[in-house]
TrEMBL record:
The lineage of its organism: Eukaryota, Viridiplantae, Streptophyta, Embryophyta, Bryophyta. This is RRM domain-containing protein. It is found in: Nucleus. Residues 199-276 form the RRM domain. Its main location: nucleus. Residues 280-291 have a biased composition (Basic and acidic residues). Pfam families: RRM_1 (PF00076).
DNA sequence: AGCACA
């Protein structure tokens, strides 16, 4: 709503480095009404290529915009945000798309006439920080790709699963994950009789027509994915997904619970922890058993707290390391 | 409401 605000007064002066005319801005919907601009920044600031972001509250629901260094990076971020449960309590599930236009990064708003075209560099990779607002209130937003067409599904992921920033670890620039394929939606699913958290998920309640490609497209892009196996049992197909650690499995367990695939014909998929996780030896056969390798923290053993998750690596520049 | 493979 709130029709076009004062866009004119910010008529975009040609940016010298605007060789970037490709759209490298994402548009995010689904935030709860009380979301703060800072939350968007903190959500994205570790993502490769993040340059700046902005939350627009002018419409009936908050709209987030984030600018990345390249279109590819923006798309990777878009896919990573897709269906993310931002707040389980308010059932806020994010929807991300490429924006129609790039976020316009205002410079020198504070009267710093000199800051000029370097403003974007100041903000690069979260140059914002926890200090007083790196840039003042609302900037003119790029027009949303779809002003408010998208709404969060009533059912979906149940927890907030955010790629874990690895603060203590230096990682080379990560290749963005294979883009997770967004489920077409979510449907309620009964999930009583689950098993204790472990590194392997059991996927049930799949449609009769599911195929492995479809499952692989969805799961192989999930952080921490290691391998999967599809098992057909007549009309029933089930699937096992191994993750590098319990936490990764738990995220997907929550995030994709009830996900509906194109082939789903009986509601959303049911995701449970497997009775027989990968990596756990069958009864007897081993000498130095290490239950902690596959058990969740608190369930048994020491629970994988010591495991790192290379595939989810997030870039951290030296300047951030210093401030974190 | 279905749990294989090491």
């Amino acid at each position: 709503m709130a029709g076009p605000p004062q866009y004119n007064q910010w008529a975009p002066p040609m940016q010298p480095d605007a060789a970037h005319d490709e759209v490298r801005t994402i548009f995010v919907l689904g935030f709860p009404p009380d979301v703060k601009e800072r939350e968007l920044q903190n959500l994205l600031r570790w993502w490769p290529g993040y340059e700046a972001s902005q939350m627009n509250f002018k419409c009936d629901q908050p709209m987030g915009f984030a600018l990345f260094s390249t279109a590819a990076m923006a798309m990777a971020a878009r896919d990573a945000l897709q269906n993310l449960v931002f707040d389980a309590d308010t059932n806020s599930v994010l929807r991300a798309e490429m924006a129609k236009k790039n976020l316009f990064v205002k410079r020198g708003v504070t009267g710093d006439l000199n800051a000029g075209f370097d403003a974007s560099k100041r903000m690069r990779t979260g140059g914002g920080d926890y200090s007083p607002a790196p840039y003042p209130a609302p900037y003119p937003p790029a027009y949303p790709a779809q002003p408010m067409a998208v709404s969060a599904p009533a059912w979906g992921p149940q927890t907030y699963a955010q790629p874990q920033a690895q603060y203590e670890q230096y990682v080379s620039y990560p290749a963005p994950q294979p883009s997770p394929v967004a489920p077409s939606g979510y449907a309620p699913v009964q999930n009583t009789k689950d098993n204790p958290p472990c590194n392997t998920l059991f996927i049930g309640n799949l449609g009769e027509a599911v195929n492995e490609n479809e499952l692989r497209a969805l799961f192989s892009g999930q952080p921490g994915f290691r391998q999967m196996k599809v098992l057909r049992q007549g009309k029933n197909t089930v699937c096992f997904i191994e993750f590098v650690d319990v936490n990764s499995a738990m995220s997907v367990h929550a995030n994709l619970q009830g996900a509906v695939l194109s082939t789903s014909d009986r509601g959303g998929m049911r995701i449970q922890f497997s009775k027989n996780p990968y990596g756990r030896k069958r009864e007897g056969a081993n000498t130095h058993h290490e239950p902690g390798l596959t058990m969740a923290p608190g369930v048994e053993g020491n629970g994988g707290a010591e495991h790192t998750v290379p595939p989810t690596a997030v870039v951290i520049g030296p300047e951030q390391q210093a401030t974190v």
